[in-house]
Amino acid sequence: MGKTTKYLIIYIGIIILLIGTAIELAHAETQDEPPVELHQAKLDQMLAPIALYPDALLSHILIAATYPLEVVQAARWRDEHADLSEQQALDLAEQQDWDPSVIALTPFKELLERMSKDLNWLQDLGDAFLANEAQVLDSVQTLRSRAYAKGNLHDNQYQSVEREQEKIVIHSVERETVYVPFYDTRVVYGDWWWTVHQPIYWRSPRHYTYHSGFHWSPRFHISAGFFFGGFHWRNNHVVINNDYRYRRSNHRYIYNKVRQYPRWQHNRHHRRTVKYHNGYKNKHKRTVVSRNYESQNQRRHQKQVLSRLKHKEVQSNRGVYHTKRNAQHKSERFDKKATSTTRRSINTGQHKVKTDRVSKHQRASRGDTNHNRLNTPRKSVKQAPAKHVRSQQARNQQVRNQQANVHKNVHKKVQRMSSSKQQHRAQSSMRKHSSRAANSNSGKFKARRVEP
C-alpha cells in the first residue's frame, strides 16, 4: 500500500507541474508581446466616433471589437429579441457562449447594429487594440483633451467629466444608468489635424435628444453587473472584474475601485476562428498600418518602376538590334541584285544605259563597292583559278570601255546640239538686222514731226 500511494502522489505531482507549465505558456502567448507602432492618423480617425463615450461602455466596445464574429451574432440575436427591455436582454444573453463584454452590449441595439454593419472598422479597431493597447488609450485621451479644450466636453445632466493627473475620465451621473452619445466628429474636436484621414462620422438616430452639441440616447437602466470593466489610465490598460458582474448591488462608477481590477486578457476561444490580420502573434499580415508601411510602399513602387524601365530598355535594344540586322540583310540583297544585273548586261550586251545608271547609284551610295566585290573574291569562297580571274578582269575592262564610250557619245551629242542652236540664233539675228535696214532705206519708218 505504501508503494502504490507513493507512486500515486508522484503521478499527481507530475500532472500538476504539466498543467502549471501549460498555463504559463498560455499566459506568455497572450502577454509580454512587443507592441506594434500604429499609424496615428488612422488610429485617430477610427476612434473619433467613440472616444467621448463613458469609460465603462468604451471598455466593453474595445474588448468586444477583438471578437467581431460574436458582435455580429449578438446584433442578429438582438434583432430577433427586439421586444425585450435592456435588463431582460442582458439577463437572457447570459445563456449565450459569448465574451462578457459582448453580452454587456446587448442592451444597446442601435450601437450593435452600427458596429456589425461596418465590419472593416470593427475588425481594424480590434486588431489595433490587440497590437498596441497603450497607443489606443493614448489616442483616446488626445481626442478627449482636444474636445475639452474646445469647450465641447463638460459636465451635464447625462455625464460627469473629471480630470485626474492630465487624464480625462467620463462616467454616468445616475446610478445604474447609461446614456449613449452621438456627436459630429467634424465639429466637436475643432479643426481636424490630419488632412488626408478625416474622422469617421456616425449619424445619430432620430429619436435621440439634442443637448449641448450631443445627441443623447434614451436612458438605459442597467444593473450594477454592467460596470465590471474600465481603464487604468495611469498604466494605460483595460481592467475587468468578471466576479463583480454577477453581483446585483448598487454601484456608481468610481475610478479608485476600477483601477484595482485585474488586467484584461484576450481569450482566443471567443475569436471564433477569425484570423488575426494585424500581425498578432506574428502569424498574419497587419491591416492596421505602421509608420514604416508608407516608406515600404514607396520602395516597392520604386522597384516596380525601375523594373519596368529596365524591361522597356531591353525590349527597345532588341528592336534596334533586329532592325539593324534587317537593314544589313536588305543591303546585302540589294548588292546581290545589282551584281546580277551587271552580269546580265555584260553577257547579253543590252540595257547598257540601265547598267550605267545602277553603277552610278551604287558608286554614289556605297563608294563603288560592286567593282571591288567583282575584283576581290569573298573570303568564304575558295580562290578562283587564274584564267577565270583574267576573263573576269577582261569583262570588267570591257564594261568600263563601254561606259566611257557612252559618256563620250552623250558629250558629243550635247556639243552638236549646242553648236546648232548657236548657229540658228546667229542666222535669225542676221535676218532681223537685214530686214530692219531694208525697211529704213525704203522709208517705211520715217521720223514724225512733233509740233511745239
Automatic annotation (TrEMBL):
It comes from the Bacteria. Residues 392-406 have a biased composition (Low complexity). This is DUF3300 domain-containing protein. It comes from Paraglaciecola chathamensis S18K6. Coiled coil: none annotated. InterPro entries: DUF3300 (IPR021728). Residues 329-338, 353-371 have a biased composition (Basic and acidic residues). Residues 278-288, 298-311, 379-390 have a biased composition (Basic residues). Residues 278-452 are annotated as: Disordered. Residues 339-350, 416-429 have a biased composition (Polar residues).
